[in-house]
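Handout, page 2. Input:
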Amino acid sequence: MHKLFLLTACLLSGGLHAQGDDRLFRPQEPAKAAVAPVPQDTARQGRVHVEESSRIQAMMADYAAKKRVLKGYRVQIFLGDRAKAETTRRTFLQQHPDVPAYLSYLAPNFRVRVGDLRDRVSADALRQSLKAEFPGLYIVPDDIEPPTLVQRTGTAAP
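Output:
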């Protein structure tokens, strides 16, 4: 029993000593940045010269020439004969010049679909805004045109 008491006392005194300031693990302090800021008056304009092979130029021209198909949605506003479809498309474009309208043929009818929408939520918003003008319209999945890219100056890319 005396040995058990002595062993317990040694373990406790060793445990108390481990709780002191002599820890084995000490968190490392973050390193300080050694990079000095560059003064504004030393900044200079530079030139970049890019050399590319004719094969890369040909590949880029070929890539730009190919038509890319995107899966998306359009809103179909009309299905019927050709004369009414053309009139509906023309009327729509006069009232909404910023939304593209497409006329297509699916035997025996012509259909007018509008918009190039990438998600169904956008298509539903367009459908809701046109519901009063074109009753009976609905959302259809379709191949859409890619969105036009805008340059930094705010004009559309060629």
